[in-house]
Design goal:
Layout (H helix, E strand, L loop, with lengths): L2 E5 L4 E6 L4 H13 E8 L5 H12 L3 E6 L2 E7 L11 E2 L4 H11 L6 E4 L10 H9 L4 E4 L2 E6 L9 E3 L5 H11 L6 E4 L7 H8 L4 E4 L2 E4 L5 E2 L3 E2 L4 H14 E11 L6 H8 L3 E10 L2 E9 L20 H9 L4 E4 L12 H11 L4 E4 L2 E5 L6 E4 L4 H10 L7 E4 L4 H4 L3 H8 L2 E5 L1
Parallel strand pairs: 2-16, 3-14, 3-15, 6-7, 10-11, 22-23
Antiparallel strand pairs: 1-23, 1-24, 3-5, 4-5, 7-9, 8-9, 11-13, 12-13, 16-18, 17-18, 19-21, 20-21
Bound molecules: shikimate-3-phosphate (S3P).
C-alpha cells in the first residue's frame, strides 16, 4: 500500500500547471466514440479513471490511439455503431464513467454489465437507473449498487425529469440516453451543476437548450466529431489554490485552469474567507473558459458556506476543509450530504483526519463544523480517496509535525504526478511503498 509522508515546509512559491480535466476527458472519449468522424483530444488526463473509460470505449469496438502525451484519437462509430463487449466493463474507481455509460448503454441492442473497484461497488446507482427505467430502459442494480446489468434491445422515449439530487452525472446519463430516445428529453436541476455535457454536445452539433436549470435535448440524427482541447482540472488546481492561501510566501500562480462557472464555487468560498485570488489571462479552450489563478498571501477567517455554492464546489470540500482548519474562527458547511456518497464518505473521513491533527470539528448529517486552530502532525487514513489524500498533504504547510497519509495509490485516478508537482512547488512530500 502506498503512502505519503509530508514534513512541515516553510511555504510554496512559483507556479504550477495541473493535468487535464477529468470530467471533460471522460466526455471527450465517450462523445468522440459515438460521433461520426475522428475526434482529436489534446490535454487528455492520463489518470486511471479516464483510462478506464478509454478501455471501455475500446471494448465497445471503438478504435482509440494515443499518438503522444495527452493526445488521443478516437475514431467515432456513430450513434448506432457500438459492438457488444466480450465481458463486464470495469470502471475502476470512476463514478462518472459508470453513470455516464449507464446512459449510453441503456439503448444498445446488446446486454452489458458494469463493475468497478471496492469503492465504486459501494456507491449508489439507483439515482441513474430510476430515470433510465422511466425512459424505457431495462436496468438492474444490485441492491442499489453495482454490478449494474443493462438488457439490450430496449426502445427509449424522452422524459421530463426533475432530479431529486443535484448531480451532473445523473443529468448527463439521462441526456446521453436521450440521444437515442424518441422525442425530446428534459432534465430539471434542483441546483446548477457542472455543464460540460451540454457544452460538449453542442460543440458536437447536437441541439441542447439550457436555461434556468432546465436542460432539453432533441435527439440528433448524428453527432459530428470535433477536436477537444482539455483545460487544466479546476478540482486538481484546488489543492494548489488552498496550498497557496495557507502557505504562499509570495504570489503563486496555477496556469491554464478551467474556470467554467459551474465548477468554481471554491473561489467564492475562499474569497468570503478573505483570500486574495485573481483570475488573469482569460481565454477559451474549445467550449470552456480558461484562466490562470493567482493567489496572494492573506489571512483567512471562518465562514458559513452559502448552500447555493455547495454543488459548484462539490469536489473541492476536502481541500476547503483544510483551508477552514487553518482559518481563524469557525466554519460551517451544511446542505452537503452528497459528500457522503463520493469516493469515500468525505464528511466522516475528513472529520477523522482533522481530529487526528488536533483540529476541533463537529460532524453533522449534511456537513461539518470546523474550528480553525493549530494543526499538529499525525497519521491520516485516506480510505483510498484521492482527494482526501491530497487535501491532507496540503495541510502540512501549517502542521507542527510530519503528516503520514495512508492508502494513497488512488491519487493516480485524477492527478498522476501530484507528489512530484507538489514537491516542485515547495511541499516536503515523499511517496513511499
Ligand atoms: C462529475 C460530477 C460530480 C463530481 C464528479 C464528476 C461529472 O458528481 O463529484 O467528480 O463529471 O459529471 P455528481 O454528479 O455525483 O455530483
Amino acid at each position: 500500500m502506498t503512502r505519503f509522508v509530508v514534513a512541515p515546509a516553510p511555504g510554496i512559491a512559483g507556479s504550477v500547471t495541473v493535468p487535464g480535466d477529468k470530467s471533460i476527458s471522460h466526455r471527450a472519449l465517450m462523445f468522440g466514440a459515438i460521433a461520426s468522424g475522428t475526434t482529436r483530444v489534446t490535454g487528455f488526463l492520463e489518470g486511471e479513471d479516464c483510462l478506464a473509460t478509454l478501455a471501455a470505449v475500446s471494448s465497445l469496438g471503438v478504435r482509440v490511439s494515443r499518438p503522444g502525451p495527452g493526445e488521443v484519437m478516437v475514431e467515432g462509430v456513430g450513434l448506432d455503431g457500438f459492438a457488444a463487449p466480450q465481458g463486464p466493463l470495469d470502471m475502476g474507481n470512476a463514478g462518472t464513467a459508470m453513470r455516464l455509460f449507464m446512459g449510453l448503454l441503456s439503448s444498445q441492442p446488446f446486454d452489458s454489465v458494469l463493475v468497478g473497484d471496492e469503492s465504486l461497488m459501494r456507491r449508489p446507482m439507483e439515482r441513474v437507473a430510476r430515470p433510465l427505467r422511466e425512459m424505457g430502459a431495462q436496468v438492474e442494480t444490485t441492491e442499489g449498487r453495482p454490478p449494474v446489468r443493462i438488457a439490450g434491445g430496449a426502445k427509449l422515449h424522452g422524459i421530463h425529469y426533475a432530479m431529486p439530487v443535484a448531480s451532473a452525472q445523473v443529468k448527463s446519463a439521462i441526456l446521453l440516453a436521450g440521444l437515442r430516445a424518441a422525442g425530446d428529453t428534459t432534465v430539471v436541476e434542483p441546483d446548477v451543476t457542472r455543464d460540460h455535457t451540454e457544452r460538449m454536445l453542442q460543440a458536437f452539433g447536437c441541439e441542447v437548450n439550457a436555461r434556468g436549470g432546465t436542460v432539453t435535448l432533441r435527439p440528433p440524427s448524428r453527432l459530428v466529431a470535433a477536436d477537444v482541447e482539455v483545460p487544466g482540472d479546476f478540482s486538481s488546481a484546488a489543492f494548489f489554490i488552498v496550498a497557496a492561501c495557507i502557505g504562499a510566501r509570495e504570489p503563486f500562480t496555477i496556469r491554464g485552469v478551467g474556470v467554467n462557472p459551474t465548477r468554481t464555487g471554491l473561489l467564492e468560498m475562499l474569497a468570503l474567507m478573505g483570500a486574495d485570488l485573481r483570475l488573469v489571462n482569460h481565454r477559451t479552450c474549445g467550449a470552456e473558459p480558461v484562466a490562470d489563478v493567482e493567489v496572494r498571501p492573506a489571512p483567512l477567517k471562518g465562514i458559513t458556506v452559502p448552500e447555493r455554492l455547495v454543488a459548484l464546489a462539490i469536489d473541492e470540500f476536502p481541500a476547503f476543509f483544510v483551508a477552514a482548519a487553518c482559518a481563524e474562527g469557525e466554519t460551517l458547511v451544511s446542505g452537503a450530504a452528497e459528500l457522503r456518497v463520493k469516493e469515500s464518505d468525505r464528511i466522516a473521513v475528513m472529520a477523522d483526519g482533522l481530529t487526528a491533527l488536533g483540529v476541533a470539528n463537529e460532524v453533522r448529517p449534511d456537513g461539518l463544523r470546523i474550528l480553525g486552530g493549530p494543526v499538529s502532525g499525525g497519521t491520516i487514513d485516506s480510505r483510498g480517496d484521492h482527494r482526501v489524500a491530497m487535501a491532507f498533504a496540503v495541510a502540512s504547510l501549517r502542521a507542527r509535525g510530519p503528516i503520514e497519509i495512508l492508502d494513497t495509490a488512488n491519487v493516480a485516478t485524477s492527478f498522476p504526478g501530484f507528489a512530484g508537482l507538489a514537491r516542485s512547488a515547495g511541499l516536503a512530500i515523499d511517496e513511499r511503498a
